[in-house]
TrEMBL record:
The keyword Mitochondrion applies. It is found in: Mitochondrion. Signal peptide: none annotated. Component of the mitochondrial small ribosomal subunit. GO terms for molecular function: structural constituent of ribosome. This is 37S ribosomal protein S25, mitochondrial. The keyword Mitochondrion applies. Residues 230-258 are annotated as: Disordered. Keywords: Mitochondrion, Ribonucleoprotein, Ribosomal protein.
Length: 258
């Protein structure tokens, strides 16, 4: 360990001495501010406390007349941070993040659905009653499953994480199926009354794929011709593109009769 560099702590004293020896005419404006609010004298910083993930559960306790709310702490011990990361901001952990990660890992296509991006306070879930998964003024999405599962874990006695997940998913699938049926019936009714719709997303995707395939075929033929010509230049043989076309049988027969 080398000597500690305390130059930054003594910057005010250094400026006053330089003014006394005539290095500059007047003191800098920050000298008085540093006198009122001096730099910290503690050289060693205390690392921030690492908080455990606290989960709320409702459990039936033997001898109690009704289930009671219990706060559980994460059993897994927290590993100490490395010296290079000791003073980084403390990581914030919420149980919703774990539930959200699990749901979207099992349902990745839910992220591909169109969504309305509106600036919110980040606490919109608190304004709904998650005793049911379907909410007024909020579309059904993956966040509904997460909040419904969290409500079941926090309010239903002896509820396990897997059973709450299965319950929320079952309600989610039922409502998704209902929405699809309603959307299909509405389209059929509109077509029956003379409405016309453009190509579907699947048809648009197939058309784009066909165009890209034709473009690729043209490029592949051109690249194959260039490769054959390059190979013929080394071997001295004729490339397939330079070979004359074979005469048909009718042309040969006509030439012999003449």
């Amino acid at each position: 360990m080398g000597k500690l560099n305390l130059t930054a702590l003594r910057v005010r004293q250094t400026a006053i001495r330089q003014k006394a020896v005539g290095k500059f005419d007047k003191l800098p404006k920050w000298v008085d501010a540093i006198a009122d609010i001096p730099p910290a004298q503690a050289i060693v910083r205390t690392p921030a406390q690492q908080h455990q993930l606290v989960r709320q559960r409702v459990k039936s306790i033997p001898g109690a007349s009704k289930p009671q709310v219990v706060f559980e702490v994460q059993e897994k011990p927290i590993k100490p941070k490395k010296a290079s990361r000791m003073f980084q901001p403390v990581e914030l952990k919420y149980e919703e993040d774990l539930l959200r990660k699990e749901f979207f890992r099992d349902h990745p296509w839910e992220l591909a659905r169109p969504r309305i991006v509106v600036e919110t306070t980040g606490k919109d879930a608190e304004g709904h009653d998650w005793s049911r998964i379907q909410q007024r003024g909020k579309g059904l999405d993956g966040e509904s499953v997460v909040q419904r599962q969290l409500w079941l874990l926090n309010n239903v006695p002896d509820m396990t994480k897997s059973f709450a997940y299965d319950t929320a998913r079952r309600e989610f699938y039922r409502l998704r199926l209902q929405e699809d049926i309603e959307r299909r019936v509405a389209a059929e009714e509109a077509e029956a009354t003379g409405a016309t719709f453009g190509p579907s997303r699947h048809e648009i995707g197939m058309e784009l794929e066909s165009k890209e395939y034709e473009r690729w075929k043209t490029w592949a033929k051109r690249e194959a011709l260039v490769s054959d010509q390059r190979t013929a230049a080394f071997t001295g043989a004729e490339s397939q593109g330079d070979k004359p076309e074979e005469q048909s049988t009718d042309d040969v027969t006509q030439a012999l009769t003449e």
